[in-house]
Amino acid sequence: MSEVTSPYQRGVPCWVDMGSPDPRASLDFYRGVLGWAGEIGPEELGYYTNCTVRGKRVAGLMKLPDPGMPIAWTTYLAVDDAGAATTEARDAGATVVLPVMDVMDLGRMALLSDPTGAVVGLWQAGTHHGAELVNEPGAPVWNELMTRDGKAARDFYAAVFGYTYEDMSSEGFEYHVFLVDGRPTGGIMTLDANWPDEVPAHWAVTFSTDDTDAAADTVRNTGGSVTAEPSDSPYGRYASFKDPNGAMFSVMQNTEDAGETSAAP
User: Fold this and answer.
1) How far, in Å, CA of 39 to CA of 234, rounded?
2) Which of 259, 157, 255, 152 is nearest to 212 (CA)?
3) Domain boundaries in the chain?
4) Global pTM?
5) Which parts of 47-153 are beta strand (E)?
6) Which of 21, 63, 185, 243 is most deeply buried (CB count within 10 A of its CB)?
7) What are 194-238's pLDDT values in tens digits?
8) What is the residue-wise DSSP string for 170-231?
């Protein structure tokens, strides 16, 4: 297990959150699948809810501000200066979706669409550093960008965040792990023609679990769907799901290998 008590390094995925039409129902769903606890936040803060494991924040839920908005998990990358990072990203080809804003004393945030169309958040830590727990059941273990143009994505994130890459590709599969100061902290997967056209560029999140098969059963029994059945990988037993609102996420049964290649400061 890994508890996080200090700000994340620039470029490291540090937080995930999601807008839901019904935060209470979403929290109940993820409580069953991932063991989360939490109290629905006040109306004046958009019902923003910190989801916790062992009392430590691992993710956020909020009331979807517009029913027409897509329902998806958003990954946030740590930055030292959200304003400067937004300018750098825009100069490198990103589109600003939500300008930099203060979130009380918790920090500063912005939302961007990268040059390949994937939405990603920036988080400048204040009193809230990001996920307080990683690499144990219920907490984030991996974040990856899924995109049709892997080269454009790699060039953009290298220019803005200084990423370097380890090529993990094989025949028919293009995948690069991105490194911050030489440490693997996430991945970029190039979507090929086998992926349906309706799958957009997006940042995906994988949460750790102690039982992938049990998580899949819970998803099926509580209104979600299994999009990739549990299967073994070199890093652990993996499965992908959609929650009852259609938000995609994955789980990985915790292993030492997975813990060594996950995002933390």
Assistant:
1) 36
2) 255
3) 2-125, 135-260
4) 0.95
5) 49-53, 56-63, 73-79, 95-103, 107-113, 119-125, 133-134, 140-147
6) 185
7) 888 888 999 999 999 999 999 999 999 999 999 999 999 988 999
8) BTTBEEEEEEETTEEEEEEEE--TTS-TT---EEEEEEEES-HHHHHHHHHHTT-EEEEEEE
